[in-house]
């Protein structure tokens, strides 16, 4: 029986696709390697969202080849799609696949075993793709599971390479999503996480809708928590807010990309909203649940960003009821409009702006923790610290709690008082 190791970099979509690949291998006689002594196949699912993510992907390929020199190395994912000519020449790469060929892996492995010749399986016309059918029945986490509901993106933000490598936006069949969700619930998963490159655009291409899908999912028997990995402010309407307010099974934390709080920077980024509209949406969410945990992405040092525009972003963030910020320095992505823009911001300036926003994020999070301290909420316990003898859980408000327990409470939801 051949053994494999699977290493995943990047987003929840990659994590889902890796899980689907694992299930394909397990169903066809492969098994996961339990030690370092006997590994026949190493699979690396790469990321290309930033230059750093690509660097880490290449580093991981090389380190795994050095560790398992006799194993077949199969590389897939976004970095493979974007820079196949670079990845294929990394020492040890035997099979190279793009980010829409996951279902080809078994065929490619078997072909390599026969021919011992490098296989390159990367489609060129990424924009004209059909939705790649993959499914899962379990997830590595064993507590919560990602469900991929869409792929691709049509937003073309000027800094982002993903629409060019993930292809046009395409929705998954609704019946398949509901069936997979039911199977995961039946297999013991308490929390399901809806994910996709632009997941809340679900249904724009197949006469369905994201809100309609939510209404069906929240009614599934046995579902205890439904999380939304990310949603754009432009996709938050009154119907969504009503669904969110009326269905406590939907997690009380939302990740809403902002990217900039400067109107002029947003226009250069080709974002699909203005500040007034964004703030109005955040106010409505806060009115629906004034304890809601709102997190956002912010990019520092976008081309041409002045000190005044950065200050504008700082001040705007303070108005939006955010509890946490995911802060990134702008990363040049060749092939995007932003890469050609003049007035690229020096790295030292980007670093300082990141530092300032991370400090602001800490303030916002501390303030949120203080506000929530002593409140009752539902904690899903996901791990046990053997040294500290503590169980670790996360609430529907994305707040952590560590407790002692005489019995095993992994994968249980307990209604407890939050203590920071």
Structure description:
There is one protein chain. The chain is α/β, with parallel strands linked by helices. The chain folds into three domains: 3-121, Methylthiotransferase, N-terminal domain (Rossmann fold), CATH 3.40.50.12160; 144-368, Alpha-Beta Horseshoe (pyruvate-formate lyase- activating enzyme), CATH 3.80.30; 376-417. It has helices at residues 12-27, 51-67, 78-82, 84-87, 105-115, 162-166, 174-186, 210-217, 238-246, 263-269, 275-288, 307-317, 347-372, and strands spanning 3-8, 31-32, 41-46, 72-77, 93-97, 119-121, 144-148, 150-151, 170-171, 191-195, 225-228, 253-255, 293-300, 324-329, 376-385, 390-395, 400-403, 413-417. The strands form five sheets. It has a six-stranded parallel β-sheet, sandwiched between helices. Strand 15 and strand 16 (390-395) form a beta hairpin. The protein is globular and about 60 Å long.
List keywords for this structure.
Rossmann fold, six-stranded parallel beta sheet, globular, 13 helices, pyruvate-formate lyase- activating enzyme, single chain, 420 residues, alpha/beta
Quick description:
The protein is of the alpha/beta class and 420 residues long. Helices cover 35% and strands 21% of the residues. A six-stranded parallel sheet has the order 2-1-3-4-5-6, with helices on both faces.
- Number-wise, the strands total 18
CATH class of the largest domain: Alpha Beta
Q: Which topology of the largest domain does CATH recognise?
A: pyruvate-formate lyase- activating enzyme
Mean pLDDT: 95
- Strand percentage lies at 15-25%
Roughly how many Å is the radius of gyration?
A: 22 Å
Low-confidence stretches: none
The rough form would be described as globular
